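Morning, I've got a small favour to ask if you have a moment. I'm working through a protein record and want to make sense of it properly. The fold is given in discrete form, as structure tokens running alongside the sequence. Can you walk me through what the tokens say about the fold? Thanks so much in advance, here it is:
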Amino acid sequence: MKFLHCTLTIICALFSLSSLAHARQVTGIAAKVNGSVITTNEVNYHLTPFRQRLDAAMPRKGATYNKLLSKARAELLDSLIERELILSEFKTKMQATIPSHAIDSDIDRQVRTLYNNSRSEFNKSLREAGLTPQQHRKETEKKIIVSVMGRRQSENTVPPLPDEVNAEYHKHKLEMRDTTGDKIDYHKIYILKNDPNNIIATPQTQLELAEDIYKQLKNGADFETLAKKHSADSYAEDGGKVVAQKRTDLSPAFASIFMEIPTGELQKPLEDSRGFTIVRVDKKHYGPVPPLSKVRKVIESRVRARKNKAKHDRWIKRLRANAMIEKKI
């Protein structure tokens, strides 16, 4: 799935607890790298945005759900191991600290891009993973360190050419937009898990109803007619039509899915705590994109990283060869 790749590329780096003994008391151990612990809580925290989207997109769970979740967990653990190797290199070779304002700025970015600028959703994610704000702050500091070390590896790369920078910017500028400015036009049909007008309805039968409606729509049934008949929200009388809804008014999981659905494509029933949503996205209004002048350094860094990938891969291979790595999951 597209959102698997997207989620894993924007996941933050790991935090480390004060000692191995303390880690065992608080959580399980996912891996050890040169004696440093990667906890299962860390893995679960970083996996949360992906898992929330997967839960929403696949109400029936099942084998495919488990396969995707297992794959994401394995890829994430490998990423955290790689980052721990880089952190170990930083401790050995660098004499520096990360400014507090840089950490604050990155946490603000995480809240904005991963949690629809909602501090409550962000804090909820921390609680679900068993992380304190202080532990998350430390984790963010480590992510920045990884970025700094990556740039050091690119210092001697041939500088990006103007055409390369422009091409990279135009290819990725939409990813750098202010996502809190996103708005969406769509049609929806909302089926409650517990229908007050149907005493024999259960979440299972309501999911079956949602799936049946989806099949009818795929076979050419009129969306607005079915919305007026079945939908259980305030948009039903308008045929399920929603105009220019702010991304920030949706849950982070739904917002990400809605923005990834191709325009005009019908989405299979999505699940939230109260019901199931069938949606067809009609139009997307993207938030403002920063001018190249404001993100030039970031774009140049991306070009350097791509041109320097072979060197980076050799660096990581060397770190792995000289490290003691033990996976527990």
